[in-house]
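So, is this right?
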Amino acid sequence: MSDTPLLHLQGITKTFGSVQALTDVDFEVMDGEVMALVGDNGAGKSTLVKCIAGTHSADSGRIVFEGKEVHIHGPKDAARLGIEVVYQDLALCDNLDVVQNMYLGREISRAQILSEAPMEQHTSETLKSLAVTTIKSVRQTVATLSGGQRQSVAVARAVMWNSKLVVLDEPTAALGVAQTEQVLELVRRLGEQGLGVILISHNLHDVFETADRITVLRLGRNVGVFERRKTTQQAVVEAITAGKPTKVAGISASPAGVDA
């Protein structure tokens, strides 16, 4: 991985009326890194991701992407940078097949006639590159797919458009054991292919299976950045539940404000 973060948030603050959702948050993701973002309900995870995705604009702070300060005013700005978000509801159309979902809103056409062959080929190649082998045909309707297969389609759609950073919101929620393992393996492959990945999850077992580092938010503040190989689930839980919300001095700092 390069020494320059793919994404570096500096001092991000966001309020909604009298509610302080984020306070002076620093956060970073490197190329080829799976960075988990964890915290209790109301910790600010969704708000931070929406600032990255362009759904919300931060009140103050800087967003640096590939070493350059950027201004993200909407989802199209994020997409142009190579930032894609896979939300928990996946935003797939059950009545359409895999190819149609992958190209929804971005269809290839000539003289107003859809070019089915190149779309089908590119879809197959993308799924193959991610080692998604459980989908028998790219012409299956999404309604016939399992939860794990649907998640695979949503992730593949996100990475198909020259993405550099993929945000996954609770990708294993409501999945069985076997399907969860398929999705976690897919997350690991994204990192191995050099993409930056932000993994939002309440399941610390999944986090410790896949993440390189773990950022903990509590009450809208960054209270710790953990290296997964050098920490324990207990330490992360303590940061989530009892960490004092004090500013982390430098994004690569050891966990701060954690009561033992």
About this structure: The chain has eight helices and twelve strands. The longest strand covers residues 19-29. The helical segments are 45-53, 75-81, 98-102, 116-129, 147-159, 177-192, 204-210, 233-242.
